[in-house]
Design goal:
Length: 131
């Protein structure tokens, strides 16, 4: 079992920055790839970013590429999502999720973009961007 706790959300004006944190506990953190997803009211959950177990590989959709950066520290058991140039359309509840990869394979990129591929989820943190 892995427990994930997100923090760092809040209210921000358009153009501002926020850094979200996801702290993990319970299992060997480096045995998991980690992704961030978001869900706005009335919309489906959307992939935002993912990082491999080592931190060496990252993935982003075009909607956030160049504005969001995912990183991790396996000693601190933490993944961060740095968000800059925020837009009102970034408003959502942001979730981090962990996908087991105990053999440290190079996972297919597409598998890290699908929410159903993940094994554990945090409770989410609200990000609101005003115009």
């Amino acid at each position: 079992q892995v427990q994930l706790v997100e923090s760092g959300g809040g209210l921000m004006q358009a153009g501002g920055s926020l850094r979200l944190s996801c702290v993990a506990s319970g299992r060997t953190f480096s045995d998991y790839a980690v992704g961030w997803f978001r869900q706005a009211p009335g919309k489906e959950r959307e992939f935002v970013a993912a990082v491999s177990w080592s931190g060496a590989t990252t993935y982003y959709p075009n909607s956030v590429k160049g504005r969001f950066t995912i990183s991790r520290d396996n000693v601190q058991n933490t993944v961060w999502l740095q968000m800059i140039s925020l837009k009102p359309e970034d408003t959502a509840v942001y979730y981090c999720a962990a996908k087991h990869n105990g053999y440290h394979y190079s996972l297919p990129a597409e598998s890290l973009k699908k929410d159903y591929e993940y094994d554990y989820w945090g409770q989410g943190t609200q990000v609101t961007v005003s115009s």
